# Entry
Amino acid sequence: MNTLRIYFSTGWHDCPWALCDESGRILQQGISPLADMPPARDCVGILSADRVLMFTTPEPAGKKRRWQRALPYLAEQYTLTDPEDVHAVPSASAEPGMISVSVVAKSWLKQLVTASKAAGLPLRRVIAETLMPDLPADSWLLVWDGQSGFLRTSVTTGLALDCGNSQTPPLTLSLVLRELHVNAGAPKQIVLRMSDASVLPCWDLPVPLVPGVAWDWRCAVISDATPNLLWGDFSPSIRLLDGLSKLKPALHILLAALSIEVAGSHLEWTMLAHEKNLLRQQTEHIFHGTFGEDSELVDAPLQMQRKLAELHHTAGVADSSDFLPLLDAASQALGTLKTGAVLSLNYAAGKLEFDLKLANAAEFQAIAQKVKKNGFQFRLSDMHDQGDGTVGKMTLLREYLR
# Structure
């Protein structure tokens, strides 16, 4: 059965695509709007690395059904975006007691899923390109096109890379390797796979850079173990009638097992609903007793933190997430910059955004280390070389109290 692979990046309205047969051989390929692509029963969306954020975190205690609903709030500290626009997909991690989480902007994912369906190309799977290349043992896998790319660090994690060239490695790669090298956690080698005919980079890294075969997402093998980002509210409908004549015996067994499962799930659901109702009543009682009967309860820990900030303001005391305390703390890390290095400053919802212009990527690396030591979360983005210096955006906010 032929499969249509569609590559979605930030500007996805004209998408690269490839129609492949069962062996992965490319039958057709091109770049076009979704409506102009060849029809296919099986469609797989491949998201560029910069559209998917991945991280590992300790597995929350309690029932999966409970903490999975809280994943957007857990991911908030990594994404720096509103939890309402966070689509977080959990998967197993190789580390005991840990889970891996892949995060996509919910509104962006909904747009491309809806557009694909309208074009007669219903997506059955959506995966991150980051997790497609095979990962050699005791190694990391780097895909690079001469200016940008991505790094696969484990079976379920990786990150996007940019702001590099044939002589200077990406800043994010240098930061990650330096931190892991200090803690003796760096890989034995990094396998480099070029995605075009660019010149192989000459980078000075603390681990060996080993050339590998060229990378092409169009014909790469897609493992069944690769997490499907169409999860939760985005889960595709089940095709019950596919191959029905061949699956009748299995369907009879499935229906019997399903009947048992439904009965057991109904009982469990009734017990969980009762338990949830009791917990909700207890939580509302405590919360309303503290902040008044008119307080609306959505997410208790986050609302407690925000209410604490309100109480500070009412008492005339500055909160650590206010502009002046944040600016004062940030100035300790950024105070040594040369005049004119800070191009602009923006503050909103407890976050500071700096547009910086520094001499080179190494200065960004030094500033990032100072920021981290001063108790900030930080994120570097929109970095590019202007010839007379490197321009980038640094977003800062205080670590959440746990």
